[in-house]
Amino acid sequence: MSAERLSTVKSFGGQQLRFSHASEACNCTMTFAIYLPPQAEGGRVPVVYWLSGLTCTDENFVTKAGAQAYAAEHGVAVVAPDTSPRGDDVADDPDGAYDFGLAAGFYVNATQEPWSRHYQMYDYVCEELPALINAEFPVDPERQGIFGHSMGGHGALTIALRNPGKYRSVSAFAPICAPSQCAWGHKALGGYLGSDRATWLAHDACALVADAQERLPLLVDQGDADGFLQEQLKPDLLDAACEKAGHPLQLRLQPGYDHSYYFIASFMGEHMAHHAKALKA
Q1: Which domains does the chain have, with CATH numbers?
Q2: From the candidates 203, 247, 259, 275, which is the catalytic residue?
Q3: Does residue 84 carry a catalytic annotation?
Q4: pLDDT, tens only, 76-107
Q5: What does DSSP assign to residue 104?
Q6: Which of 226, 247, 274, 275 is catalytic?
Q7: Active-site residue 259, yes or no?
Q8: Which residue in the list 11, 84, 150, 171 is annotated as catalytic?
Q9: Residue-wise pLDDT tens digits, 188-200
Q10: Fewer CB within 10 Å, N side or C side of the chain?
């Protein structure tokens, strides 16, 4: 196997595993976690990819979201990659800010130096990591979904919208819905892709739904007590864009919930059921 196992923990009858491997896309060592439900012992199972948010690694979701119980119930594998390339020679925000550089890859392929040397997270998530997972683990590549939180919610929505037929299901928790229209997006997309804002739209869910080749239903949960709701996340723009395009969207504003993993864990069961229904159809 081309990946090195870092840890194995039994959970809900299955295995929570963590690996590192040499990534050609990101030109560094990358880390990912995978939960294999007990059903994987008897054959290939559906798989869903989770993309985490700013400041996270592959471990935040594994330890805080409570997904293993639902993954075991539905017989679905869950893969959680890291949020950016890592290593001593990987560029970081010069000011050490949390919203750019390490742990803030934004799931795009950077075109600007020095970021383009390593920050190829779009190719990593869409191509390289799934190829490794499909080759080395008992998952069914014809039955895969994608979901995520915040920056990762942005990644899940945009990747699904840009790759018709690749995913059977998609959902997001508190996604950055319109990165071309918020400060987080301006900094990240401007830094990684350059000043031509037209190039940003390929990574903006609100722009992508207008010309989506596949009307894959979107499930989005958003807490109404989220401190980033108005300035950074802007689900109202996604709602308007989907209504205009006739794209199916279930946007659920959850009263009293914030941006944390307490919020994510509260609705993880419903998201896993959403994916399982589509992946088993």
Answers
A1: 3-279 (3.40.50.1820)
A2: 259
A3: no
A4: 999 999 999 999 999 999 999 999 999 999 99
A5: B
A6: 226
A7: yes
A8: 150
A9: 999 999 999 999 9
A10: C
